[in-house]
Amino acid sequence: HFKAIIGDGGAMGGKDSQEFMAITADRTDLEKWLVLGNSIESIDEIPNTVIEQIKEELSKWLVAGEDTVVYAEGGDYAANLEMATNKFENIASYTETLELEKVATPNVKTIDEVAEFLEADVAETLKTLVFRADGELIVVLMHGNDELNEVKLQNYLGANVIEPATETDVESLSGAHFGSLGPIGLKGVKIIADREVEVVKNAIIGANEDGFHYRNANLGRDFEVDEFVDLRVVNEGEISPDGRGTLKFARGIEIGHIFKLGTRYSDSMGANILDQNGKAVPIVMGCYGIGVSRMLSAILEQFARIYVEKTPREEYKFSWSINFPKELAPFDIHLVPVNTKDEEAMAVTAELETALRGKGYQVLVDDRNERAGVKFADSDLIGLPVRVTIGKKASEGIVEVKIRATGEVVEINKEELVNTIEILTK
To answer: Which end of the chain is more exposed for a tag (fewer CB within 10 A), N or C?
Structure first.
């Protein structure tokens, strides 16, 4: 559930950026996410109404994570959505070039409305977007069914600030308003197009006149483009840029980041070293970060489980609970004496604590004078790998062991506890 992906250097200005992402796990596999109480033999016996409630609860977490990760199913490529690209082949279209036709499109402004009005596919349209990049007007052409990736645009232009143009900007540039923009006849402005536009034929575009569009607009004959760049947001199912596999989306949490700063800061600070020839040269810098608190969030998300119990009244109850992996749990074992006033039980608890600590285990003892239900609820919240309950059978030397990861519960003799835990937690 972890991937190193291509990332954006962001405000620090780094290049060759990589992010280490914890991927949100698939929540559709009930076998993986459910831990059944001892009174439940299999998922099949849980009523469908309860199963549907559990599925709904799992679905709430399908979009957990702060970022969308794009990766190649069947390949090695991975990037965040801001940087992801696909395989592009500039294959010329042999479709007949049709005559440019101006058509009335009254009260039609959005791409979907234009396509519906002209009984065309959205893929046949081009949309004309206008931005200010560090104050300069820029026109961007995209396929009507593609979404502009503003991070790609900003990185390509090297601009500090990119913002949508105002209605006044658009009117002064084209003589029309939003919804009727097109590339034909635009002067004194740079036109940048997504690379997919280079192979378009007979497109529908705005006519730079309110209430009108053009059919059959073609690059070269009707309008020109200054630069073609990859500017679109990729879609699932497209071919990976290296041709190995198709693109899939997942959600993730960034827990580490590395990127090359180069000499951007060392130049300005005069941070130099002597090279092999004794010449002063700027230090080549890198930036390395790890999010300790983010790691905890990612771990808890990936290892959390839904615990299902059956009550004496044959009711099925479920709840999320922490399930610490043993490598990261704050303690290895939770000793829970049910009755702290029971001297025999407390003596067994002390004996087990000593034996377990002697074997190197970190032990948490709940010696509070609380009801058993409160202690068990708190134990579930803490989520340690093993819980040992010292209850009514303590006088017989019998204790109950519960393995958190599987929900398995066994009663054993106290003398066998250490060996049993070693076996069950391998």
So the answer is: C
